[in-house]
Amino acid sequence: TEEALNHAQRLESVGQLTGGIAHDFNNLLTVIQGNLQVLEELPALAQDSYAQQLLGAATRATRRGAELTGKLLAFSRRQMLQPIAVDTHALLHSLADMLRRTLDQRIRIEIDTAPGCPPVVADAGQLESALLNIAINARDAMPEGGTLRFRTELCGALPEALRSERNDPNSNAAARFVAISIADSGTGMSEEVKERAFEPFFTTKDAGRGTGLGLSTVHGFVNQSRGAVAIDSKAGRGTTVTLYLPQQEEAGPPATEDERADETIPP
Ligand code: ADP
Hints:
Blueprint: H1 2-41, H2 43-46, H3 49-76, E1 83-86, H4 88-102, E2 107-112, E3 120-123, H5 124-140, E4 146-155, H6 160-163, E5 177-184, H7 191-196, H8 214-224, E6 228-234, E7 238-246, H9 257-262
Helix pairs in contact: 1-3, 5-8
The structure holds adenosine-5'-diphosphate.
Adenosine-5'-diphosphate is lined by residues 137-138, 141, 184, 186-189, 193, 197, 202-205, 210-216, 239.
């Protein structure tokens, strides 16, 4: 639909703008950081504890600024994606192990993968960080604990509602998908939050905790991967985020290292 296309174009231009600003800003931060370091080491200031305290605070703030610009750059991601065949079963199990070690013990982590699920075609690193982003949101929605469940399902085609949203001239109508869903038993989203959740910079979290770039980055990544993403959520009932990614075609042999480079999707 036209509305969906406009939405995709708006996200695209916000992405370009953000990437440009983040890039320039990062350069400025590098200059500030470099000068702060020179000042910290200046003999005249080395013994001045008040000056060192101020410089230390300025250095920490600059580092936080650099982290934020790093997130902005990831969101606008101008770099190339390298799609390869990814085994979702292995990926989800290693992600779950890591989360079990790091998250609050009151969050139960379950996995339910479809037997014989074919690999998906996606950039492995980006897929992992998309899943991590979604899992962190789930954790934030369950401050008292709850259940985080990863599930994979084979699905023949994209759900109708998501097909129109794709702005992809190369899309293959016959493509089959794997649905990877991440469900939490947390606070859920109101209708208004659900509508806006993919918007860049939209956040309901306190400044310093949320950037509003998590789900918009996920949205950009799955679209570039010729997939789609959907949110099912009810306030008080929890949230399920589902990523649809193309299955690896059963036919052709797996891509070799050299061939992979040719498959890179331009940004
Ligand atoms: P951020 O996490 O930095 O706020 P996101 O783009 O990842 O940015 O999410 C946008 C908003 O969507 C969040 O601020 C939150 O209100 C809502 N949200 C995302 N995931 C969930 C979830 N699992 N449960 C409830 N609300 C969520």
